[in-house]
Specification:
The protein has one domain. α2 crosses α4. 48% of the residues lie in helices and 8% in strands. The protein is α/β, with parallel strands linked by helices. A four-stranded mixed beta sheet has the order 1-2-6-5, covered by helices on one side. A two-stranded antiparallel sheet has the order 3-4.
Length: 284
């Protein structure tokens, strides 16, 4: 992936800050839950978020290493390119884009949705319109799930999470929340809505990749393949096979590996935000 010269001011790097920014949550999460839920890209982290419980864990404040500073530079660059692309897309459709914040942390920090832990993987919190990133997730993605992790696969994950921010700005997140809180729908129905939500975020990530490459020519050979590898690695079917040895489609919450690839590539091939109706009649 080729780097650009632009950097965003919306990145808050909390690594090395000493306190981790929050309360350390105690144990109790089973390894099956960790394998099957925590390492999904995106989604609703509320099941493993906590606003308390546990003791403050103080760590020594430290300076970031040169490699860590380079990672921040990269995240700031990708964040800026998402801002430029989505500002342009929203303007083209008569709307105004409000960029999210991006928080980089290690171990634990506080979010508007509760306590964020590294084991949860990257996620978007609509309450404070912020993407939370612990970069250790990508080691798990490579070592545990066999994905090929490159700079662009990291950019894809960020673009997916910012896709959830786009959903919040467009009102999709609020409609899903209304469905969930109404109590009128079964767990299986809400799982289908969750899958549609995640696949749309993958679609938006593909739109971002296409539009940004058209403007900045960021893509290099193998980049799209690495994004697909990351998307497929955390498909519901792949994770279920690894965690429980079989696939239960009714339990899908993010979409199969094939679906995640399909919708990312549809976003990339069309570059058109209007082509991303993964819900069909679900929210109408």
């Amino acid at each position: 992936m080729k780097w650009t010269n632009d950097r965003s001011d919306n990145v808050d790097d909390r690594r090395g800050s000493g306190s981790g920014g929050g309360m350390m949550v105690g144990g109790g999460l089973g390894t099956l839950i960790i394998a099957a839920i925590i390492f999904f890209l995106g989604g609703d982290p509320s099941a493993i978020l906590s606003s308390g419980g546990g003791s403050p864990q103080q760590t020594e404040q430290r300076n970031l290493t040169p490699d860590e500073l380079k990672v921040k530079d990269f995240v700031s660059m990708v964040t800026k390119e998402t801002e430029k692309t989505w500002i342009a897309i929203f303007q083209q459709n008569g709307m105004q884009y409000k960029p999210p914040k991006v928080v980089m942390f290690e171990s634990v920090t506080q979010s508007g949705c509760g306590t964020a832990q590294a084991a949860m993987g990257p996620f978007y919190c609509p309450a404070d319109e912020t993407v939370y990133m612990d970069m250790s997730f990508f080691k798990e993605l490579e070592q545990r799930f066999g994905a090929k992790v490159t700079e662009f696969s990291i950019a894809y994950v960020m673009a997916h999470e910012i896709g959830h921010h786009v959903q919040t700005l467009l009102g999709t997140t609020q409609k899903v929340d209304q469905l969930r809180s109404s109590g009128r729908y079964s767990e299986a129905d809400m799982n289908r809505v969750s899958v549609a939500t995640e696949l749309q975020a993958d679609f938006y990530a593909g739109v971002w990749a296409k539009q940004t490459d058209n403007r900045e020519h960021i893509l290099e050979p193998g980049d799209i393949e690495s994004a697909i590898s990351a998307a497929e690695a955390v498909g519901d079917d792949n994770i279920q096979k690894r965690s429980q040895g079989y696939v239960n489609q009714e339990g899908f919450t993010h979409g199969s590996s094939a679906q995640r690839k399909e919708w990312f590539m549809k976003g990339y091939n069309t570059g058109d935000i209007r082509q991303g109706d993964t819900f069909n009649e679900l929210l109408k």
